[in-house]
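agent> step 3/5: call structure_predict on target 'YcdB/YcdC domain-containing protein' (Lysinibacillus xylanilyticus).
agent> reason: downstream docking stage needs a structural representation; sequence fetched in step 2, passing through unchanged.
tool.input:
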Amino acid sequence: MVNFKKLGIILTSTAFSVGVLSPMAQASANVQESPERVAIQVSSTETKVTKSMLIKQVQTLFGDRFNFVTENDFDMGQGHYYSDDKTVRYDLSFHKKVNGKDVYGGFTFKGDNLELENFFYQPANVADAIYPAKYSKADAKKVAEDFLKKMPNTANYKLREDLGNDNFDFGRPITEPISYSFAYSPTHNGVPFSDESMYIEVLANGEVVNMYRNTESTSKATFDSLEQKKNEADVLAQIRENLSVELRYFIDYNYQSEEAIAKLVYMPSSFMGVNALNGQWQTTNGFTSQVPKTKGVEKLSAQPLEPRKKNMTLAEVEELAKSLLKVDSDKVKLRIEAIDERENENGETIYSVNYMYDYGNHGSGSSIEVNKATGEIINFWNMGNEFFETNDKVEPISKDAALAKAIGYLKEFAPSHLHNYSKPLEDPMYDKDSKQYNFSFPRIVNGIAVMGDEISVTISADGKLGALHVNNQKIDNWPSINKAISADKAKTMFSDGLKLNLQYSKQDGEDNNHYNLVYSPVYNGILFNNIDATTGEWLLKADDSKEKPAISHPTAGEELTYLLRQNVLDVKNPANFNAEAAVAKGEALKILVKSLSYGYFEYGPYGRDNDKQSFSNIDKNHPLYETVEQAVRMGILQPADKFEVDATLTRQELAKWLVRVLDLEKAAKHSDIYKLNFTDADTIDSAHAGYVALVSAMGLMDAQQNKFNATEKVTYADLAVSTVRLAKAVNENNSSRNYW
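tool.output (status=ok):
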C-alpha cells in the first residue's frame, strides 16, 4: 500500500477522452462538463514500481512491437493519483528518430497489477494508411478486436455503435493517415455499462495507435435484476408522452483549425434516461419521480456592469493573485514565480500569473489568468482545495447557498460578462469526494442559451471559490432563430427517431457499488443526439459516409467518391456528375486547398491578418477569397494583378501547382536539365518544362499514349487522381508546411 505523500499537483488534460467521446459529448446539452481532473504526484521513495517493470509490461502486452526502443529510450514519469481515485498511475514514454522521422509513444499503467489504462503511438511510416488505404474499416475492426482480446479481463466487452460516427477522418486533410476508432463497453448479463468504455484507434495500415480505458473493478458490485425491468414499449411511451424540445445555440469547435462555429439546434428533454425498474427519471444527480424540466433563461444582470478594474497593472494583478491564493498554514509558503502578458484568441491581453506553493522540501504550482483591460479573472483554480484537503471535515453548505456564493464571486471577479450569461438551467454537479458544487452559467444570445460557451464556477464545502473559468468565445455569425424549423416538427423528429438502449449506470450515493438498470434514449441511432434547427437534419449520424453515394467513372470513380465523402468535392447529384467536364481554376484551387488543409483558413493561433489581398479581383467579399489567400500562404499561387477564377485550368498549369505544393519549384525552374520524351514535348511551354518533368517522374500526372497534352483542359477525373496521389507524396515527404 502506497503512503500518499502529496509532493506536487499537475493539471492533466482530458483531451484524449474528450476527442474520442466528442460526438456524444458535443451533442449532449444534458451532461455538464466535469472540472479538470487533478493529478497528485507520489514520492518515488513511496513506490517499488520501476522502469524495468513497466517495460516488461509493455513487452507482455505488445510482444516485440517496441523492440526498437531501448531501455535508455524510455522515460518513466513520477507516480500519481487523483483526488477522486486513489489508484496510483505510472507513465512510461519514448521519443526517438527512426529513418529521419520522429517516433514517439506513451503508456499509462495503474494499480498494483499495472493494468494498461492509456496508450498512444506515432509510427514512422504511415504511407499505407493514406488513401488508398491498406485496411478497410472492417479490417480495422478485426485488428481492434484482436487487440482487445490481449487486454486482461475484457472477455465481456461489447462494441458500442450508439456513440456517433466512429471514423474521425471525416473532414481531415487527406494528407493525414486514415484511422478508425471503436468503443467497447464492459457488460453484465449482456448489458453494457453506460459510463465505462475502452476506446481503440486503428490506423488504416493496421496499427493500433491509441487506446484509452475508463473502467472499474466490479468485484464488489451489485446489479439490478434483468427479470424485474419494465417493458421497453411502456418506457418508450412514457418518454414520448413527456418529450419536449429546447432551442439552443451549439458551439462546434475544431481544435485543429481553432475555429468556433455557432449552430442553431434543437435538443430533447433534460433527462438522461429512465430507471428500468421503477420508471423514475435519470438526471446528472440521480433519479427523480418528477419529470425534469429545463429552467427558463434568467440573466445574471439585466444591464451591463462596469469592469472590475480597468487597465490593471502588474502590481495589482500580483496582489489579486496573492489574495486568492492565500493559505492559512505555517507549513506552506506562496511564491509568485512570474507574470507574463499574452494575447488570446479573442485579441485580448491576458496576464498569466505563475505561482508555486512551497511545502517543506517540495512544491507545486499552476497559474491564474486575468484580463488586463478589465481586471477580471479568466481562469482560476484553487489548488489548496486538493493540495491541503481543507474540506475533509467540513459539512458542505446547501445547493442554494452555494449558488448564491457562486453568483457573488462572479459579481466580484467577472462583472462585465454577467449581462450576457444566465443562471444555471440545470442542477449543479456535486462531487461527493471533494465536496464541491460545479455550476455552469450559460451564455445567452438572441434570448437562448449557448451550449459550449459558459462560465463555470466551483464552490467548496465551506463556500470558498474553488475555480472560475470564463469560456467566452468570439463569434461573429449567429444563425437567425427565425430560420429555425418549428418546435413541433423537431419534436416529431425526436419522437419518430427515438429508440431505447438498456444500460447499467452507477449513481453517486451511499451505495457507490450498485449499478442501476436504465433505459437511455437513442435518437436516430445516437445517444444524446440533437437536430440542426436550420437544416432540419440530425446533427450526428451513425455513419456519415453512407449519406453520399458513389460517383461512377471508369478510371477515377474511387478517387472522386473518396473526395466527395471527405467533403472536398461538392456535388449535388453524384449520379449525374460529369467527371469529364473541364475544371475552372477557382474550383480546382478550392479542391486542392481543401484536400491539404482543414478548410478554416482565416483562423489560427491568435488569428491571422485577414486584410491582405493578393489579387486585385479577389477581395474579402469574393467567395474564394480565403481559399486564394490560403493558396498564397501555401505557395501554390503567387500574388499578381489577377487570378482568373473562371478560366479553364490546363495540365501544365496543374503541374506547376503540384510541384509548388511539394516545395520543389527551385528544382523545376532549371528546365534546361530535363529531357522530355513525350511525342508532343514541343507543345509544352518552356517555363513549364521542369514542372511537367517532375510530376511525370513522380507519377502525379499520367501521359496518354506518350502525350502529355500540356495545353489541354484538366477534368474533374484528372484532378481527383492527381490530388489523391499528391496527398500521399506530401505525407511521405513531410511537406506539411502552412497547410493549416
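agent> step 4/5: record observation. The longest strand covers residues 85-98.
agent> proceeding.
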